[in-house]
Design a protein that fits this description.
The chain has 205 residues and is of the alpha+beta class. The chain has 1 helix and 12 strands.
């Protein structure tokens, strides 16, 4: 009886050992634990703003005002006071882009290849203006439009001088424009320049 019990115990122990030996190798691997989902943020491309070109060819916003985008007007004033300006030089931006009017224009009046008169600023104060589309700037001009008591005049009064205006900081190919002096009503008048033309401080409008 004791032998049978020992045999049964030995057999049972062998089964347990065999089961323990085989168990780990035959287990089905559990599916991997699913971690928190990671959402990859889409790559955001930098926005691209298309700048529409100005309809005024060759004109960049903020570029120096050139003759092609300016309309000049020279008006002889009626005030006879010695301290009042003799004439008014105006420049209007006719383009669709703003431009920089930094400085004084240059006015030149001459009779053929003979006598000539040039302009110069009355003040050395810097001029820095931005002309928007349709905006204008006025420069008062101070000069004697009649001969001195002794009859002297830089350009003879019986001549009809040609008048040219060049904007400040012109491009190499910008040679300015020819202007006709008129009265306040727009009627042509005979220009008379008897000395240097002095440009006063500008006024933006």
């Amino acid at each position: 009886m004791a032998r049978r019990t020992a045999a049964v115990c030995a057999i049972s122990l062998g089964v347990v050992v065999a089961a323990a030996a085989c168990g780990p190798e035959h287990r089905v691997a559990a599916p991997p634990t699913t971690g928190p989902s990671r959402t990859t943020a889409p790559t955001v491309e930098p926005s691209q703003t298309t700048v529409s070109p100005s309809t005024s060819a060759g004109v960049r916003p903020g570029a120096a005002c050139g003759t092609k985008q300016l309309r000049w007007r020279l008006t002889r004033l009626a005030d006879k006071s010695s301290k009042a300006p003799t004439a008014l030089l105006s420049a209007t931006n006719t383009s669709t882009a703003s431009c920089a009017f930094n400085g004084y224009p240059e006015l030149h009046a001459y009779a053929g290849k003979g006598p000539a008169v040039w302009s110069e600023p009355k003040s050395k104060a810097p001029v820095r203006l931005m002309l928007g589309p349709g905006n204008a700037v006025d420069f008062p001009l101070f000069y004697p439009a009649s001969p001195a008591p002794d009859g002297s005049c830089s350009i003879p009064v019986d001549d009809d001088p040609r008048i040219e205006v060049v904007p400040p900081h012109p491009a190499p190919t910008d040679y300015g424009a020819t202007v006709q002096i008129t009265d306040p009503h727009g009627r042509n008048v005979t220009p008379v320049f008897c000395d240097t033309v002095h440009l006063g401080a500008p006024r933006l409008r």
